[in-house]
Amino acid sequence: MVDVDESQREATTASVEATSGWRPRDTWRFFTVVVNAASCIEWSEGEMRLTRWDRVHGLRPTERRLLDMEASHYLPVDG
Known about the structure:
Strand content: 35-45%
Helix content: 10-25%
Number of helices: 1
Shape: elongated
Distance between the termini: 41 Å
Structural class: alpha+beta
Region (Disordered): 1-20
Oligomer: single chain
Mean pLDDT: 90
Radius of gyration: 20 Å
């Protein structure tokens, strides 16, 4: 967890107020989360689509895969 400085706190409070019309109290606790990697997995018609992002490689192209029932793992889909 990383400390939130006063300018970040004010920007967040102002954004909440502008969006909702409600302003968080001064006693609200603020914190940040540092994300090093994220992924999204979608399944459609038996096909798995994997999209990944990380700090080193950035956003990678979506990978398409199908489950090989015999081998019990996913294989890349051509094209």
